[in-house]
Design a protein that fits this description.
The complex is a heterotrimer of chains A (148), B (325) and C (508).
Chain A lengths: L5 H20 L15 H20 L12 H21 L1 H13 L7 H22 L12
Helix pairs in contact in A: 1-2, 3-4, 4-5
Chain B lengths: L1 H12 L1 H8 L10 E5 L6 H17 L3 E5 L6 H8 L7 E6 H9 L11 E16 L8 H10 L4 E4 L5 H13 L4 E4 L3 H9 L5 E5 H9 L4 E5 L25 E9 L4 H16 L1 H8 L4 E2 L4 H22 L7
Parallel strand pairs in B: 1-2, 1-3, 5-6, 5-7
Antiparallel strand pairs in B: 3-9, 4-7, 4-8, 4-9, 4-10
Helix pairs in contact in B: 1-2, 3-10, 5-12, 7-12
Chain C lengths: L1 H13 L2 H19 L5 H8 L8 H26 L8 H12 L3 H34 L4 H16 L6 H15 L2 E2 L6 E2 L13 H17 L21 H23 L5 H15 L12 H16 L1 H7 L5 H12 L8 H4 L1 H32 L4 H20 L2 H19 L5 H23 L5 H5 L1 H27 L13
Antiparallel strand pairs in C: 1-2
The chains are: A mainly alpha (148), B alpha/beta (325), C mainly alpha (508).
Chain lengths: 148, 325, 508
Amino acid sequence: MPRIDPVEAMSGLLVLALGAFFYFGSMGYPMGTIGRMGPGFVPHWLGALSMFLGAVILLSSLRTNEPAPDLYWRPLVAVLASIGAFALLLPRIGLVGAALVTAAISILANREAGWRMLAITSAAIALICWVLFVLLLRLPIPAFWWDL
Amino acid sequence: MSRMSLAKIGLAAGLTAAAATTAIAQDFPNEPVTLTVPFSPGGSNDIVARQLGLQLSEQWGQPVVVENRPGGGATIGSAHLAQQDPDGYNIMIASVTFTMNAAVRDDLPFDPRADFTPIALIGQVPLVIGAKPDIEATEPEAFFDYIRSNDDLSYGATGVGSIQHFAGELLNQAVGSNVQVVQYPGGGPAMTDVMGGFIEYSIGSMTQMLPQVEAGNITPIAITSLERSDAMPDTPTLAESGLDDFEVIQWWAILGPAGMDEARVEELNSAINEVLETEQFAEFLANDGGTPRPMSAQETADFMAMNFDRWVEVAEQAGMKDQAE
Amino acid sequence: MDIWANIASGFDVAFSSQNLMYCFLGVFLGTFFGALPGIGSLAAVSMLLPITFYLDPTTALVMLGGVYYGAEYGGSTSSILLNLPGTPSNAVTCLDGYPMTQQGRSGVALFATTIASFFGGTFGILMLYSLAPLIVQWALQFGPAEYFAIMVFGLVAAATVTQDAPAKGLAMVVAGMMLGTIGADLNTGIARFTFGYFELHEGISFIALAMGLFGVSEVILSIGHKIDKPFIQAVTFRSMIPRRDEVRRSGMPMLRGAGLGAFFGALPGTGPSIATFIGYAIEKRLSRHPEEFGKGAIEGIMSPESANNAAVQSAFIPTMTLGIPGSATMAVMMGALLIHGIQPGPQLMQENPDIFWGLAASFWIGNVMLLVLNIPLIGVWVRLLKIPYGILYPAVLCFICIGVYTVRTSAFDVVLVLLFGFAGFVLRLLRFELAPLLIGFILGPMVEENFKRAMLIYRGDFTEFLTRPISGSLLALTALLLVWTTWVILRDSRRKRPVDHPMGEADD
């Protein structure tokens, strides 16, 4: 019995699932005909193609075998959280605060960074963003909460 | 010389400071006013808003910050404005499309009539029926016959419920023709397909049509305002060519959130009207075949109400919502 | 001859001290912002637009033009050094530019792309000078059927960019096309897959997609192993000189790239990204050692960089001579002229010849400035790699957020960066290539739109695609490319069993 390559199997499943999402999701929209396509036509058949490709990749996972890659949990969570914080904070406390928090959270991804480095780096980045984008370029972005 | 230029950059970047020193102390506005443009930079709404904002900031001595909030066919910017404080520091530019959208879309997250305060009308520009360069029927009457008697023709518009689509369907109704609408992502791409002869015509704003007409890339058939335009004096109106009362014009207005103080609305209205009366602004609009159209706040509100009613009627008659099936 | 008089008067305008200064300011700011990871030409031009309102129209455009092509120059810097494309059209440059950095040869890569950019830019300007009216007449021959054909050609070419797993590359093209269908359908106004978010009505923000997929996923994967072992780079002048065989291998790709770029740039509605992808695909097909592509082949950076800068220059042709901007960035530029009451279009060359010729001249001067500016800067950029990654990446993330936010004043788009950052991370762990996804996303909607449009105009008659000369020959070319690619795949798979590459690009 052949061994299954986890990377290829996951890839196949992912492509299959994405295709299925568009294939079935588009069924709520009018299909039309090929000469007069409705909005559902293109995503529907792209979904079908994607499901086919997913199946091909899944089958090929039976042949090859490669080691599973490392996961990078800490950077993944910290980086994504830092971007989320920016989206959340910018409209509420302005650019400087948002940049400060974003930089600080993203630095948590770095296992070696100490508190001092975190404080200095994030403050410096917030300062650079403020000077560059608000003072010099005068972008219509609120800098602080009182500018909102 | 280069030092002077450097000073100029400083000035440019610091316009706000420069303008503030020349202004007299006043109650309103005493801080920057945000003028929301619910479209990307570079379009006609954006350009009109920026010119207006520039002249308002000179008048007030307070910066007018033009803020582009595009998306959702102007939905995002409009919804954003509707939620701002009705203190006069948050205003928005809206065009005829705002009242047309209300007629064809039922997914708007706001009430286009109730959630806004009409402040002032800015100006208007007619549309031009621009046909492909080698069209034989160049006179309106011959053109009507041509589109009535051929059933394989197409015209370009800029999306379901766009002003071009409304104008096209109104023309179909008035002439009794059945020209097929083909949608484009913008007026420019629609015009290139007219110039290349791929579609018969498109009914676009004079701003976009004028240079192409002057270059002979597009044949003007007629314009859609009730009176002829100074920018194209030789082009007849549809109304004088047998389609009585045919009028579709592009206009722009300034709106605020609902619940604005009446005195504040008046202040803004008279400030805007003062800009409209300057030669500078009239020339700016005339460049593109447009004219300023000062109105009181009440007249603006009536004008918009009339537009809302009219487009609902046209959309129903043309079955424009059903085209979505 | 008349044209020489025009060119001379153009240089007169461009050499006025004010225009020279703003030209320099524009290219300087453009390179600077382009090189900042996360800020591309669209963001840079939108950010700097308000400054130009107070300048006279020629000067305003001289400066904005400088920002635009300066940002395209600078965009290659962060692609090569950090694997973070500054603009979507630099995404292809990452494929071979970043491996060169990993080999300690970033100086060579930066030097080579500077030359390629200058060459492409100059080529595009020559087009602008000599052929503008001709090209425009010719571009008008492109209707929906022709655009459909050329987009399909681009898609097929893009699918072959992928390295060694055709099914996975194709799956990414299709995934990009599916993501491209999100948003309001043009013909019916029906919102597809928007889940009630109006922010998705005009589709997913291109910048958010590119920054998330490429930028954020790269940062996530790099933290951890880049922090303790920064790349060792030589920064002497000699380290910038390419090997002799690289010089020899650079000429033709640069020329082909410039030609492709000038061609696609002049077609309104295509843009530089497509030219870079097709250029890369062609070089890989023509190369005698295609196995080097993706591992630091010099052709893989010369062609796309030359193409992208040629396209940026020739993109001014439809904007200036037809008044029809081909891209979002060009729309902002055109807005800058309109604000000053100048209508770009067929009349521009007659009514304001000083603007047209002055701009063309200043573009070339700007390109010379970029050349002079960039070669000494290479040393500075390379030293940037010495900044500890632990300090660099938080700044990169902030720049990405600010850049994406500013383009549409939208926090929603920042959330999209988060989602696509996650998606890009997962896809790279699974050893998918992301460039085909991006090109599918750009081309997919155009293919759909133009196909539907052609079907409406020709009343459902498919034969029109084949009988129209331009679209017919393009489709025939596409079929040939498909047959050839299939044959190559079959031949290779028969000759040798597929070789496993334990090092996916994500693991470096």
